[in-house]
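Task: fold both queries, return tokens.
Query 1:
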Amino acid sequence: MNGESIIKTILILLLAAGLTSLHAQAQGDYNDLYLYRVYFNDKGAAPEAFSPGELLSPAATARREKLGIPFPDEQDIPVSSQHITAVTSLGLSFRCASKWMNTALFSSTKQEGTGELEEFWFVDSVRLVKRPSAPVKLTSSKYGMTAPADDPDAFDPRLPHNGHLLHQSGFTGKDIVIAVLDAGFHNADLIESLHPLRQRGGIIATRDFVSGSDYVYSYHTHGTSVLSILAGTLPGIINGTAPGAGYLLLRSEDDESEYPVEEDYWAAAAEYADSAGADIITSSLGYFTFDDPSMDYSFREMDGNTAFITRAANVAASKGILVVNSAGNERNKEWVRIIAPSDGDNVLGVGAVKQDLTISDFSSAGYSSDGQVKPDVVAPGVLLPMQSQPGLWYKGSGTSFSCPVISGLCATLMQAVPSSSPAEIIDALHKSSDRYNSPDTLYGYGLPDFLRALGYLEELNTYKPEVMMTAGPNPFFDEVTLWFRDTPGHLTVTVTGTGGSTVLKHSWSSYAARSCRLDGLGQLGQGVFFVKVITDQGEKVFKMIRLAR
């Protein structure tokens, strides 16, 4: 995505989500405010009244087209600005809106009676989602535990999943956009393991939905640790699971308190991610109990489609985004069970195993209250190497850290088989897991093998030639794809011009996929080129013609 496209995309998503007026602040400190979620029963318009370009960014449109998702629909229509203006006329300040949920968030310095609000014909209901409180959140329980590493041994979480084999084949998440929804990214602009990410411009956009700014490099290091597992590179220590992906860093979590309002920020962040072109949302957050017990969820409400954040996550999935969420760290505490939104019908919930691949003592137990297999899968989440401060690396434990192991490796599958839908990826992970035939409440379907999952997705979505290999399109413009009847094993590809000069050469000692995309050919001049391909099964030369656009 080029700079002009990014600017256009961000402008459209801000307008569509109603965020250009984000935080027309009420007076007073945030901790002193009352916040209200207003549910509307009307949007004042139908999808037919808009063109797709008025409602959706080019990136959101492209994803829906690729996956065959009808658009636009009623959920794509912004919350009515007239409704918002009417509510603010009563003295409340608008903070953000969710077009998917048809809600808006308002703040006040005093506790408001809801009767006057509910008299508006377009207001369905009003809920208090935060009251004034002193900072009390216990971050060690919420976010897992980290400690400075004092030994040279570092565990590579890719290995039990065969994820390193996809990386060795060049599938590192290139061209995939991952939105990281978290509590803050303090030091992510400084730490060494993210230097390659910053250097290549891999951080596409940042947004803080709690404070209403674009600055996210403060508040908490939890998101920084998660990002280092996804994109970090520290030789011999940290091997990111998607080091080639692009990232949206979105702060939706208030690290000083725990109230349902954070679900509103999460929904707003997910809509932003949709418009900014995210393919994956990775969220190491979750909700069940709050600082005000009257606002708590019950386990009965962990049924896949009741909690506000879970319904928002399911909508995100319906828009073609793969939503991956930590299952929670509650099994050794009073709650025990999974937390929202990992209970979502269309959310990939991730539990945590130890390095010996047995379940950790903290990983939240399933099933969901309606009997769905949850967590869906597990990944290493104990003593994982990560970084959150310059000059140091840490070992962390929690489902917060097993979650980015899975979400990052999912980006490698998306790169390898780009026509795969999120539902197909989730199904492939289930089927490739070691407990698929006997799932349980602790491991779910178990530990997924991403090499096997790749094979399942290729059977669905990758062309399989009858001959040993083929190439196309011919003529070509910017890229050439090679298709193989069988996995090639050793693979060497050389592209030469008619004069014999080499213009591209790649070699893999063991190539995992049955297709190989040669991009970056758009700079070549018009003419004839020869693509020589050598595999364990044999070799072939393709005569290809490049046409100028």
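Query 1 returned. Query 2:
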Amino acid sequence: MKLRDRLLLYSTAQLLMFAAVCALAYGGFARAVLPEFEDLLLAKTEQITRMTGSELDVPLGADDPALLMRTVDRVVRDPDFSYIVVREAHGRPLLMRGVPPAGELFSGPEVVAQVERGKIRAWTRVSLEGLQLGSVAVGFSTARLEALAIWARRIAGGVALLWLLAVAYSIGFARTFVSPIRAMMDFSRKVAGGALSERLATAAPGELRELRDYLNQMTAELERREAEREAAAGRAEAMRSELLAVSRMAGMAEIATGVLHNVGNVLNSLNVSVTMISDQIRGSRVAGLTRSLELVDAFPGGLHAFLGTEKGKVLPAYLSTVSKRLAEENARMLDELDSVNRDVDHIETIVAMQQSYARPSGLKAPVEIAALIDDALRMGESSFVRHGIEVVKDYAAGVVVTSDRHKLLQIMINLISNARHALKEHRVPPQQLIVRVREGGATVEITVTDTGVGIPAENLEKIFRHGFTTKQGGHGFGLHASANAARELGGSLAAASDGPGRGATFTLELPRTTDEGNHDDN
């Protein structure tokens, strides 16, 4: 094959790979990220509706318009806010902010978000000690979500245009690149035949021009001194060594792909933790406590007189409940911040592993298996609750191995993530994810079992191959990287399933002490 054709084929293959990666990225964004944002907006609508309903009991019970306005003001300031309507028990509107759509706002299931004509709405009743005081309907706009989808399509179109321009440029480049090289080949043959007085005068672009000047300079030096020719040969040897090093680095693409996959899993956990902390702060009872104190301050006669009223009699119990709730919220937020710190530490370790390429990726240290599995489960905790997945833990007590903690954590994150996706695709009770830990002399066995979609028998031998996947939008990196990591730790990873719809079990077997770096990856 001619050099021009090889250059054209090589550049076209690279551009096709780039186009495929961009298409996969856009498809993954459209199928995974946009629905996830919509789910978050639905959840936010339900949560704010429920929380607003619980906070309106005092304003409606006291028939205080000013307090009612202050209560809904936080909802109005939300960047996605569209409208809020508060009505009394008999259906008479008491407050309306924004522009609600025509139609029944208080229909459908209570506190269940519904999408209608670019809006997401939900409603709930407001009651105090069993007495219905009214109801509230809250609506949020999907404009930001729609704008995100539009920008994604624009970016995809821009990338496609750039790709077409790159294809056109590669074709032109291949045609103009060969002529100077042929002239250099002819020149080289003449020099090899002894014509050291020859000089290369052909026009050449960019780096080829520099190469032409270098060849002319080299020829002149060969003509003047034999010693300089030997120096030029040494430089050529150095260039050859550099090319070999670049070739070896190119072979690490699979490692980099696995790193990106694992970092993506940990970033999902970070997003869940940050969302939970934000929700805790938004749902805090501090605002209700402040309003209660303002109500006491505004009462004629002060605290002593207020305590003699019906509302005042429940104030101490209410303050006690709020105090306990605030303490619980503080503890939960501290737990989530600890989780965020652990996830950031894990990402730093993954990046350090990628930078070291094929060198040993981490230090061996005692690892408590139960605590490590709990960390991996915590990264998907909100998804388990949202999809009604029951997590069953069956750990042998006090199991510790000496190994690379971060590699073990990556393996468990991948196995638990795959089990969660299998359960989401097969919504047939019971929805269970079971993690077991057993000791066996010099080894430890960890099994992750799900009651999900299952694995066909013909796929059991292929499931750990690089690039093999049956998951829509999947890339086939996670299980392949996990199997490799298990072998590097001196253990093994196996899969078993009774067939489609009957769940699957993944078994990770580890030595108590890992002799990392001396195991065959084949």
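Both queries returned. Flag for query 2: The CA atoms of residues 401 and 512 lie 5 Å apart.
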